[in-house]
């Protein structure tokens, strides 16, 4: 049939037949796979093969009469493949298998396994494995049922929101592909009740058609129940302008989760189908969402692709299926700049393309949802929430509730979206604001729901002003112990030398820690040293009050260094302050070598109650203990103590790590490169500079 084509073209056409237009048993022709198109021209591309040359050589050999040539196994990487394609198929004797790298295996299995994991963790849920429907195992059939669904890859949406007070069932398609009508009908059957069912879908053509078809089929088969199934399409995206979306409408994004929550909570109160539908529709008409991404997501089971965006770009308005946004921005703005651009789209009242919310511009009230699209850390998400709330406040928009977390993802997309629900004004014909807020706050057993704030968001600045004094501040206000250095000016100079030395040593310490730890030791010590130096120059740390100086260093360490080393330094200097107070009691007002020795021993002993590290441990404890022990000997020789600390730090080159980050690093590499412990080296730098 394809003898007139080249081997390359012939095999591609064979794949086109077998993968794209194969008839399944008991059905008509079906599209087993989504075609692959060129983004530039819209033209078809080849099916991607891992070892296509073997296939082409095999076809050429068969044409040449070489029947003895063994058929190769060809890996065909397909973007979207349904669950039914479980086995390799044979094309002209060539086995073709779906392939791609991901932790969960191929798309053929990861969805089923994920849903099975969800119901394993949540026994109140049931799973129809064949139809991929997650449902409440024991629903209250005296209440209105809510069904949703769509393509997978947006977890916890949609199955994660099945629970009392939210959804009754979720119908799951393959990754980024709508479930079929038979799946949806199974969901309707599982939740059938006398109060009615509300089907909620995001505004995507496949979802609307398949869920709509299932609704109509169910109504045709059960005429008496036809009026007990309602249908709501939710579109909340503001990136697609009104002109562009004239026919298709706005895309459904994270805002649909707020519809699930409010409608589900209302249904749980016993509201009838009309009441639940009307409130859900009102919420749907008053939500707006826009997203931003640093890169496209990766679909499990597909070969990694080249970066869609450069490292200096972001894309505003990206969809949750890798759809392009409405604009790219380069260079990447600050977080404040990104948030401002997103809010411009959400809150515009003058842009004829995007003024979707009926804002008054005078004291509008909203519920805010900041959604992780999949690849944003919790650390970053917290900063994003704060920036969005602050920017809204600056625009005179009052935030009544804040929801933050992972609600509607795009697999592992590094990005986030902002959703605003515009709350009704007193004169509005919509549902009362206090009702909507109560429904948002209402409890639910849905495992994916993350409730964040049940009251007005806090004012960070006001909270800081109103905070009670810290224990360190209280101690400074009540303690009157004064112990001075014999040479206050010399003490100040020594501390300054140590800070400068640590600052200069940062690159060396960082390089060491890149091999022996997590790479932050140099910067951590530098941050602490710079803060101490600033305190010295401001007069907070000085030689007239050694106890106060030790307390100040302790506070600086915990506030500016952070991490394990910051905690260890803070504990040591806090204990040193106590040790100096005890050692100086009843003695001279000037710190002698004996007082220092006793205080240092006390501080080291106190530190040992909080760490298991003991010399030799390849940690900062090694040189610190060596310094204290040498200085505490009868002569209190500072030079000998510094030398002992230096030797202990050098010795960490050959010591097996027993504590700290180095304990997790391959020991052979540390021994081979003879990298000293960076924390220990930092102590060496400090004591050598102090004694210089």
From TrEMBL:
Taking every annotated instance into account, which residue ranges of this chain make up the domain DhaK? 106-449
**Annotated Gene Ontology MF terms?**
ATP binding; glycerone kinase activity; triokinase activity
Stretches that traverse the bilayer: none
GO-annotated cellular components: cytosol
User: What are the protein's UniProt keywords?
Assistant: ATP-binding, Glycerol metabolism, Kinase, Nucleotide-binding, Transferase
Residues of the region (Disordered) are: 460-482
The residues responsible for catalysis, as annotated, are 321
Q: Name the family the entry cites.
A: Belongs to the dihydroxyacetone kinase (DAK) family.
Q: Which Gene3D superfamilies match?
A: 1.25.40.340, Dihydroxyacetone kinase, domain 1 (3.40.50.10440), Dihydroxyacetone kinase, domain 2 (3.30.1180.20)
Keyword flag ATP-binding: yes
Domain DhaL residue range list: 489-692
Q: In which pathway does it act?
A: Polyol metabolism; glycerol fermentation; glycerone phosphate from glycerol (oxidative route): step 2/2
Among Pfam families, the record links this protein to: Dak1, Dak2
In which residues is substrate bound? 151-154, 202, 207
What protein is this chain from?
A: Dihydroxyacetone kinase
Q: Write down the superkingdom of origin.
A: Eukaryota
A Gene Ontology biological process in which this protein takes part is: anaerobic glycerol catabolic process
Regions of biased composition (Low complexity) lie at 461-478
Q: Is this entry keyworded Kinase?
A: yes
């Amino acid at each position: 049939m394809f003898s007139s084509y080249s081997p390359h073209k012939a095999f591609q056409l064979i794949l086109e037949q077998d993968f794209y237009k194969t008839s399944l048993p008991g059905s008509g022709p079906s599209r087993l796979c989504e075609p692959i198109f060129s983004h530039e021209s819209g033209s078809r591309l080849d099916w991607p093969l891992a070892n296509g040359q073997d296939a082409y050589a095999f076809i050429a050999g068969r044409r040449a009469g070489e029947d003895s040539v063994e058929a190769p196994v060809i890996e065909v990487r397909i973007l979207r493949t349904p669950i039914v394609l479980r086995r390799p198929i044979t094309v002209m004797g060539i086995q073709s298998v779906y392939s791609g790298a991901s932790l969960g295996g191929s798309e053929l299995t990861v969805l089923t396994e994920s849903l099975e994991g969800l119901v394993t963790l949540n026994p109140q849920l049931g799973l129809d494995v064949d139809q991929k429907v997650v449902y409440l195992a024991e629903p209250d059939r005296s209440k209105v049922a809510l069904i949703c669904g769509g393509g997978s890859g947006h977890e916890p949406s949609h199955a994660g929101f099945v629970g009392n007070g939210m959804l009754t069932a979720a119908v799951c398609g393959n990754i980024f592909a709508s479930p079929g009508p038979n799946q949806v009908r199974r969901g309707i059957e599982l939740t059938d009740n006398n109060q009615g069912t509300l089907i909620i879908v995001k505004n995507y053509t496949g979802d609307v058609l398949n869920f709509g078809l299932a609704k109509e089929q169910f109504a045709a088969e059960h005429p008496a129940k036809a009026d007990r199934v309602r249908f709501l399409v939710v579109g909340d995206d503001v990136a697609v302008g009104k002109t562009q979306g004239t026919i298709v409408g706005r895309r459904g994004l994270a805002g649909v989760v707020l519809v699930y929550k409010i409608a589900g909570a209302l249904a749980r109160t016993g509201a009838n189908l009309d009441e639940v539908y009307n409130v859900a529709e009102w919420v749907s008409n008053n939500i707006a969402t826009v997203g931003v991404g640093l890169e496209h997501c990766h679909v499990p089971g597909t070969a990694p692709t080249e970066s869609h965006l450069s490292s200096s770009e972001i894309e505003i308005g990206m969809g949750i299926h890798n759809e392009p946004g409405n604009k790219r921005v380069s260079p990447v703005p600050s977080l404040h700049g990104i948030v401002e651009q997103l809010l411009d789209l959400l809150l515009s009242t003058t842009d004829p393309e995007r003024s979707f919310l009926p804002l008054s511009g005078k004291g509008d009230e909203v519920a805010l949802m900041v959604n992780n699209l999949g690849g944003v850390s919790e650390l970053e998400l917290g900063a994003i929430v704060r920036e969005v709330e602050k920017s809204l406040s600056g625009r005179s928009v009052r935030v009544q509730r804040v929801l933050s977390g992972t609600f509607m993802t795009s697999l592992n997309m590094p990005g986030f979206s902002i959703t605003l629900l515009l709350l009704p004004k007193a004169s509005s014909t919509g549902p009362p604001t206090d009702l909507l807020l109560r429904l948002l706050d209402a409890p639910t057993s849905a495992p994916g729901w993350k409730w964040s704030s049940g009251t007005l968001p806090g004012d960070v600045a006001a909270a800081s002003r109103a905070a009670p004094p810290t224990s360190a501040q209280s101690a400074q206000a009540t303690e009157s112990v004064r112990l001075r250095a014999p040479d206050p000016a010399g003490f100040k100079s020594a501390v300054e030398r140590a800070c400068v030395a640590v600052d200069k040593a940062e690159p060396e310490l960082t390089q060491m820690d890149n091999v022996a730890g997590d790479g932050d030791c140099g910067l951590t010590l530098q941050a602490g040293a710079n803060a101490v130096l600033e305190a010295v120059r401001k007069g907070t740390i000085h030689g007239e009050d050694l106890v106060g100086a030790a307390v100040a260093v302790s506070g600086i360490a915990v506030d500016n260094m952070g991490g394990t080393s910051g905690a260890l330094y803070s504990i040591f200097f806090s204990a040193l302050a106590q040790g100096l107070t005890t050692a100086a009691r009843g003695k001279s007002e000037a710190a002698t070598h004996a007082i220092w020795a006793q205080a240092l021993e006390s501080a080291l002993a106190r530190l040992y109650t909080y760490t298991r590290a003991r010399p030799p441990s390849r940690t900062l404890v090694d040189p610190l203990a060596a310094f204290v022990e040498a200085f505490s000997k009868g002569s209190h020789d500072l030079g000998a103590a510094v030398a002992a600390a230096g030797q202990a730090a050098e010795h960490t080159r050959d010591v097996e790590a027993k504590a700290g980050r180095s304990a997790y690093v391959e020991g052979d590499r540390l021994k081979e490169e003879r990298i000293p412990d960076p924390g220990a080296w930092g102590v060496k730098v400090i004591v050598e500079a102090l004694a210089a």
